[in-house]
Design a protein that fits this description.
By secondary structure, the chain is of the alpha/beta class. About 45% of the residues lie in helices and about 10% in strands. The strands form three sheets. The chain has a five-stranded mixed β-sheet with strand order 2-1-3-11-6. The chain has a four-stranded mixed β-sheet with strand order 8-9-7-10, sandwiched between helices. It is globular and about 70 Å long.
Length: about 425
Amino acid sequence: MDGPGRSARYRSTTSTKTRSRSRASALLGVALVTAPLLAACGSGGTGGNTLNLYAAPEENFEKVIESCNASANGKFNIVYNKLPRGADGQREQMVRRLAAGDDEMDILYLDSPWLAEFAEAGWIREWTGTYKEEAERGVLAGPLESTRYKNRTYAATKNTNVQLLWYRDDVVTKAPETWAEMIEQAKALKAANKPYTAVMTGAQYEGLVVQYNTMVASAGGKIISEDGLTAVVDEGAIRALSTLKDFATSGIASASLTSSQEDEVRKEFQAGNSAFQLNWPYVFASMQKEKPELAKNFKWARYPGIDKGKPSRVTIGGANYGVSTYSTKADLAFEAVLCLRNPANQLYSAINSGVAPTIESVYDRPEMTEQYPMKETIREELRDAANRPLTAAWQNVSTVLSTILSPPKDIDPQKTAERLRKELQAAIDSKGVMP
């Protein structure tokens, strides 16, 4: 997942969450009242029908598990083993156990960029037949693509996310459609002595990579070949380098650009001196709670594109479920996953845990409107979203990208592209870069 701590949560205020939770809890049925409490998380489970789920910490997720266990009527019992909060710790723990062929791992929480690595290593099973059909039914195009590797399906979508352009409508009269328009508007605001800065994640980490990947996709470019084996960095990727440099040197980027991650970006915008923010939807609820006087002018639009008249293609975050190759209860695991991410449970998690649904019909539910007033913009972006390059060497690739792109002001588009091709190829070939 992406966002603060790479776990973008759309957090609601306590009062709003309480009202919405009472409505959404009905989705889980009366079984929640009678379902037994889970054993202590993280201890693992044993037994013929026990399924060990390894997943990131998520608020209220235990209720989803309880619901599925109750509806299974004894067929399976999911035990929630909580992974560390940070994405790197999550991946490391699972990789070590899978590399050892651990058969006590059944259902795996996969940050969307990990799919190729886990599939290539043979750690997760392919989804086929009726399991695949059910897992893919009604899923938006962007999240669905994140479950596929080499034309095969290796996961079912859990939740998703995309960044939006956030702006103040008391200083911005019309949301910009492109990066060039945003820079031009910000310069005019600066000349008029109004709040003008644009804030985004520019620190040397995955957040900067996500911004660049969105620019590349929006320019119709590629960083890595479709098969994940060759560093491409084509003309679209070079145009994206130029756009990133233009932004960083325009005089309208925040002075804190190179040290900003998601929450620093959120807080700087809330301080009141910025006109634009590029960030995940969780910032909306934070603004309502922490800066109500500014919230009334806090609006959103589609992430800016590169070319006028050509919509952006925004990099998705989110997570998927995989079934471990080493599980001795694979059929039960597939069934359990289908329950965990069914429409009712995706809606419950969206409202109570702040994780955006992948199933399109969930966005039509009236319960979504209160906490996701920007849901149509999110859905629009998800229909033609971009994924990070599907390569088994993503950890290496991301490290190289964040290093070479930082600081953005030092980018020389042609020379930086040449360096990227050379060092990304080495990363793909696992030469000289440690995950």
